[in-house]
Every structure is written in structure tokens, then in C-alpha cells.
């Protein structure tokens, strides 16, 4: 028995017994000329897709399972011609997508892509750099540091977040990851390093409002605090964190022997775009007996600070421990690209740095270089700075400001139209390019307005609830939207609101 095992093991390692392997590199199967030709065709396809978005519905008419059913159940054994793959992309995949770049996409928050960002990402894909350490791609690391210093300057963020001091910026895949690593750093600091070595050794608490993003609760779960550690602090009428309520929650926890670990302030909440008072939160925290980490989640709204009239969005940032915003939402950069800054990288590195032997280099021994793997959860990292750098150069500060200003200006006009409408009202004050509205006649009428706007997949509008009431959200921000699309939407909303109140009137008549 032992003998036959041995012989099969030696057979597997005997080259003459292995299936024949080609002498050519794998790239020969799709060579540089084929790549060039098909790459040009694909870039043409993307340009045509963008140019033709207007003609498509913004949302597909598909049911779960339709797409899968249209595709082969098993993978191909032989290589398929690229042209056929492209054809399926065109015929089967693209028509079954929600078109986030559509000019009538007003849902959720935008997920911008732009020519420079797509080309930057293509370059990054072609280079295939793994930028986990400075040594594994020096320019990838240094360009990221530079791009985040540039972005900090463009947003008017305080110098403490710049890389030439104790702090610095890093690109995370998402705002959710930014909140998670902020919480890991906070946990590290609050436990004096114990969390890293033994796990959490005392009850910790995190503070945010009920309007904070769901990623706060998720981060508390992942960081081992548990979601019961999240305190939903009360808000004022504008859905902003109430600093007095925060002070009370902190005091109650201290009395109960719970250690306050972090406050997650939101600048631009997902539901209504409310902005928590960061400076006042910092005032409350300054009175605490031990430091409490202040993270600002400005995922959507933060990038608007490129326009000086929106610098209020960064006020108080000089007193935050970390601050984060998503160029991949509203700043022309395709997913994923979250910009995350810390004022002091110490606790972050304490929490996340691990140096296995196979990653030791002269550069990390000298301490002269940044190893961004220590600033995030995974080890590997894509060269995402490239697309951000392409965007910052491709649009310039003036182009970025113009992008934001358009949408804010059009949203202001839409909000005026809503206020002037006899049937509609604003459900919250307009925040930047987010307009929240509802029908004056109540829930059913509001639901009908939302349905009518999305009818036949014509546009994408999504909803939320504020104070328990249904709200239609209009988030303007697609790079293909023009002012007239927003004016047309305002007309449609008015017409739908009028029809909804007539329907209400009829229903009332019938019930009498
Ligand atoms: C969109 C959003 C997030 C989540 O962003 P991801 O980058 O998708 O994780 C978090 N917080 C706020 C306030 C958001 O608007």
C-alpha cells in the first residue's frame, strides 16, 4: 500500500507524465495585438454606451433569474472569440443593468465615472501593481500619498491630515471600510493596546445618530464590540446629532463602567443629507476624562468642499481624529475610491501593522516609507491612486468645482419648484444636491409620485423614511445629467402629484 502511494506521488512530479504544457507564455493566447484591437473596440463600446444612455430606460425590466437563464450554464472549454463576448455584453448584460450613469439616475447617491477615471483604472489594471508595501510598487505608494495631500488641500481639510506630519491619507475601498478601520484604531486607543493582543477587555461604546450609515453597526459587529455597543444619540429637528444628548449618553456609560470608544459624526446623512455639528461634538469630547475617537463620515457630501462656498462641510475637521469621503460617489472617480485621513497614524498602525518575514524590506526597516497595507484590512491593494490622479489632473480644481456647482444649483431650482407646488412639499431642507420631498396628502400619494417617476424604468428615484413618513429622494449627480433633465423631472413630479391628489379625491368621493 505504502509502495503504491509512493509511486503515484512520483508519477505526479515526473514532468514526462504531466499533460503537455506549451512553451509559450499565457499571454500568447490573447497577444498584445489582439489586446490592442479588442481594447480599442471595447473603448468604442463604452463611449457608445455613454452616448446612448439617454435612449435606454434607466432601469431594466427583468425578473430574478432572467439573466442567468439567458447564459450558458457551464463554462466554455475552448477560448471564445472576444467579439462574441463583447456582443453578449452588449445584448445580454448591459440591457439588464440599472444604469447608474444614466442622465435620469437620481437614486441612492451617485456613483460617478468619468473618462479620466476609467482610463486611470485601465492603466492600473494593465500595470497590475500590488501596492501593499512601498517596496512592491514605490510609485503606487507615493502617488497615493501625493493624491491624498492634493485632495486634502482641495477640500480645505486641516494640515494635520497631511502626510508630512503625524497623520496622512490613504485610499480605502469604501466608506464602510474607512469607518471600520477608524473604529479599530479607536478600539486600540481606548484599550491601551489590549484589544490587539487579548481582544476586548472592557465594555466599549460607539455613538452615532439613527441616521448614521448602517456601516457603523456593521463595523461594531466586525470589531467585536457587538451592535449593542452602538448608542443612537438623539437628534434635533434637522436630523443632526444633538451634542447635549451626546454628553448625557457619554456620562451614562461612564457611570455604568462602559468606556466610550468612538463617535461617528455624519456629514451628509444618507436619508436627508443632514450634517452633524462636528465642532460642537468635539467640544463635548474635550470635556471627557479620556480621549474618545472622533471619526467624520462625509462619504457623499464631503467632496462638495472642493467649492469654497461649501467649506462648512469641513468645519470642525481640525478636531477630528479621522475624516473620510468618497470620490467614488460624487467626484468623477469610479468605484472603488474612498479617501480616508487620520490626524495621527499611530493608533491605526498599532491596530493593523503586522510585519511577517516575507515582507521585510530595507524600506520598512528604515521607517522612511509608508506601507499602506498597515492602514487597511486586506494585505493586497490595487493602484487606485492612478484613477484619482487622472481625475484631479483631467478636470483640474476648476472642473471639480463646476461639477459640484451644477448639481447643487439644479437641486436648488428643483427644491424651489417643489416648494411652489400646491401638492408637494420638502420633507427636509435641501442638502447640496439632495432633495427630499413628499406629497402633502400623505403616504399613498407620496408612493404614487415615486411610482410614477420610475414608471417603465424611465428614471431611478429611491425612497427613505423620515420621522416614520415615506420620502422620495432626488440625488442629482450623474455626469450625464443636464439641467433640462432636472427641469423635466420637476415637471413630471408636479404632474404625478396632481394626478395623485385627484386619485385621492376620487377615492374619498367613492368612500362617501
Ligand atoms: C454611501 C455612504 C456610505 C457607504 O459608502 P461605501 O463607500 O459604499 O461603503 C457610508 N456613509 C455614508 C454617509 C454614505 O452616504
Automatic annotation (TrEMBL):
SUPFAM superfamilies: PLP-dependent transferases
The protein, known as: Aspartate aminotransferase family protein
Domain of life from the UniProt record: Bacteria
Compositional bias of kind Polar residues: 1-13
Biased composition regions of type Basic and acidic residues, renumbered to the chain: 57-66
Region named Disordered: 1-31, 57-78
Homology family: Belongs to the group II decarboxylase family.
Organism: Egibacter rhizosphaerae
Amino acid at each position: 500500500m505504502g509502495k503504491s502511494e509512493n509511486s503515484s506521488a512520483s508519477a505526479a512530479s515526473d514532468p514526462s507524465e504531466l499533460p503537455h504544457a506549451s512553451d509559450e507564455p499565457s499571454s500568447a493566447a490573447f497577444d498584445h495585438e489582439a489586446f490592442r484591437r479588442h481594447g480599442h473596440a471595447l473603448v468604442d463600446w463604452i463611449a457608445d454606451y455613454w452616448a446612448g444612455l439617454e435612449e435606454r430606460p434607466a432601469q431594466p425590466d427583468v425578473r430574478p433569474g432572467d439573466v442567468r437563464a439567458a447564459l450558458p450554464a457551464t463554462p466554455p472549454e475552448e477560448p471564445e472569440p472576444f467579439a462574441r463576448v463583447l456582443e453578449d455584453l452588449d445584448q445580454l448584460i448591459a440591457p439588464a443593468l440599472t444604469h447608474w450613469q444614466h442622465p435620469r439616475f437620481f437614486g441612492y447617491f451617485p456613483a460617478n465615472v468619468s473618462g479620466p477615471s476609467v482610463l486611470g483604472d485601465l492603466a492600473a489594471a494593465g500595470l497590475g501593481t500590488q501596492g501593499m508595501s512601498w517596496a512592491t510598487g514605490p510609485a503606487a505608494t507615493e502617488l497615493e500619498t501625493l493624491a491624498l495631500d492634493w485632495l486634502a488641500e482641495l477640500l480645505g481639510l486641516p494640515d494635520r491630515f497631511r502626510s508630512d506630519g503625524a497623520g496622512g491619507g490613504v485610499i480605502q475601498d469604501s466608506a464602510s471600510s474607512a469607518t471600520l478601520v477608524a473604529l479599530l484604531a479607536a478600539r486600540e486607543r481606548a484599550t491601551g493596546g489590549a484589544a490587539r493582543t487579548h481582544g476586548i477587555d472592557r465594555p466599549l461604546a460607539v455613538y452615532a445618530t439613527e441616521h448614521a450609515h448602517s456601516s457603523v453597526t456593521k463595523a461594531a459587529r466586525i470589531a467585536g464590540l457587538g451592535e449593542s455597543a452602538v448608542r443612537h444619540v438623539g437628534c434635533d429637528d434637522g436630523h443632526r446629532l444633538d451634542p447635549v444628548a451626546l454628553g448625557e449618553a457619554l456620562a451614562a456609560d461612564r457611570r455604568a463602567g462602559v468606556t466610550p470608544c468612538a463617535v461617528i459624526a455624519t456629514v451628509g446623512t444618507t436619508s436627508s443629507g443632514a450634517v452633524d455639528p462636528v465642532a460642537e461634538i468635539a467640544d463635548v469630547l474635550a470635556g471627557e476624562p479620556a480621549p474618545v475617537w472622533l471619526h467624520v463620515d462625509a462619504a457623499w457630501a464631503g467632496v462638495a468642499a472642493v467649492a469654497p462656498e461649501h467649506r462648512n462641510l469641513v468645519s470642525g475637521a481640525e478636531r477630528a481624529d479621522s475624516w473620510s469621503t468618497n470620490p467614488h460617489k460624487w467626484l468623477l472617480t469610479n468605484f472603488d475610491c474612498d479617501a480616508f485621513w487620520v490626524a495621527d497614524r499611530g493608533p491605526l498602525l498599532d491596530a493593523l501593522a503586522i510585519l511577517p518575514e516575507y515582507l521585510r524590506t530595507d524600506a520598512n526597516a528604515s521607517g522612511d516609507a509608508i506601507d499602506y497595507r498597515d492602514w487597511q484590512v486586506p494585505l493586497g491593494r490595487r493602484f487606485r491612486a492612478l484613477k484619482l490622479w487622472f481625475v484631479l489632473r483631467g478636470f483640474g480644481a476648476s472642473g471639480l468645482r463646476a461639477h459640484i456647482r451644477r448639481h447643487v444649483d439644479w437641486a436648488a431650482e428643483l427644491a424651489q419648484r417643489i416648494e411652489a407646488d400646491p401638492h408637494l412639499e420638502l420633507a427636509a431642507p435641501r442638502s447640496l444636491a439632495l432633495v427630499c420631498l413628499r406629497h402633502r396628502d400623505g403616504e399613498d400619494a407620496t408612493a404614487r409620485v415615486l411610482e410614477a417617476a420610475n414608471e417603465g424604468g424611465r428614471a431611478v428615484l429611491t425612497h427613505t423614511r423620515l420621522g416614520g413618513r415615506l420620502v422620495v429622494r432626488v440625488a442629482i449627480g450623474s455626469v450625464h445629467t443636464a439641467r433640462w433633465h432636472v427641469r423635466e423631472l420637476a415637471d413630471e413630479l408636479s404632474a404625478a402629484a396632481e394626478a395623485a391628489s385627484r386619485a385621492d379625491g376620487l377615492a374619498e368621493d367613492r368612500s362617501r
